[in-house]
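Reagents: none. Just compute today. Cytochrome P450.
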Amino acid sequence: MEQQDATLDGTDAGRAGAAPDDLPLPPGPDGLPLVDNTFQFLDDVWAFYDALAEHGDVVSYGVGGYDFVTLLHPEHVERVLVGEPDRFRKGDIQRQSGIEFLERGLLLSEGEAWRRQRGTLQPMFYRERVESFGEPMVEEAVAAVGSWDDGAVLEPQSAFSELTLRILARTLVGADFGEEYGVVREAAEAIQAKSDAGALSSFLPHWLPAPRNRRFRGATAAFDDLVGGLIQERRDTGGDEHADLLSTLVAAGEAPDGPSEKEMRDQLMTFLFAGHETSSLALTYVVYALTQHPEVAEGLREEVDGALDGSTPTVGVLPDLTYTERVIRETLRLYPPAYVMFRRTTEDVAFGGYRVPAGTELTLPAFRLHTDPRFWDDPEAFDPSRWEGSREDVPEYAYFPFGGGPRHCIGMRFAMLELKLLLATVVQRARFDLVSDPDLAFEPAATLQPRDPIRVRVRHR
Ligand code: HEM
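Predicted 3D structure written out:
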């Protein structure tokens, strides 16, 4: 391993402005002329990341014509997300990889446009507002579990995907998509397929006539029509009785400097995509983990049964569900749905004694930091008890499933409330046995997808 600044004593952080020209560029794996490391990367993204870690905490390489640097130390992550966020913007690779139809939404917007949007939408995610969504969340979860037959084989990802989408539709846009859930699912799947980091077409511009691109364009056009219809309907009926995300957007759109039609559509698509894909994956991985760790499943049932005493979960009971919360945190550590975050340097920046030039794509791989043995004991073990106590021994940004700093996940509180309530509802009513392969392999798509569908047999309790 090449020697790097292991102490990270803050020498970089003190360097405001451009990094000195005399600093060396970061080390990294050797690449081929013209294509750099593209083929190594495409061959096996996970093995490629293993190889990167052998070069230290600041590692450079080239893929698909982009210069990349991967940061593998929590202090570097913290500087990018929290300490000096103005020196970085969202990565161009995200736009290039085909999700540009979300580009005016909160996830990908930049600068003043982002600040304005975040200010307008933040009140939707204040504690009291989010807690008012608890009831519809549980109602939808009770209905979903009720629709699973005892003994039936279920694909949790598709079941939870529909469930989390129903919840978003009800709470954020006051809609029941009915037959049109398929439109959102199809668009979400096309985005995943299109932005699969292991596939060459991820790096092709979206207008090329590759099959994935055709599917992507068709699916996202239908999604765009769906949200356009929602906006028009709300304009026509007036939004007074709704006070939800859709009404907030429609009202803002009436101001002269408010969001354009394109921005409103992108915004709705952003929330419907970012808000359901991540949460449904988290629940899927919790269910998988429970099938593999019967003692954890038993601990969870004991806590949930004791706290609920046969009644339906409510927001009021959540403070008693501490083990439930630990199980969720541990799942987000081992299986972070947003497994890599991307940024782009806007100027030369020093990391760990290396100069990272302006215009470099940075990757912050949560999945690596979450399992780095320097910061975690027995990192590959699924052990919710590691979350007992204050955890002061673990650096803060060794764990960042919701990002950090000004651009941290706006839906974090929503997601944690939803995950706890849904998990408690599910565990109270059902148990699961895995019927698919217990060895999980992952697809490096826009989110951390299982390569093959996870399937479980449902048993009513
Ligand atoms: C387990 C569930 C979730 C996970 C793991 C997750 C993860 C993340 C992460 C890591 C980011 C930061 C990305 C970056 O820095 O590049 C983010 C941003 C975002 N998330 Fe989530 N998220 C979840 C649920 C939700 C939900 C439920 C919503 C909406 C209701 C949502 C909406 C957003 C939006 C709009 C942003 C962009 C925020 C901004 O840039 O200002 N997410 N999410």
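Residues 38-460 form a domain with the Cytochrome p450 fold (CATH 1.10.630.10).
Action item: order primers for follow-up constructs.
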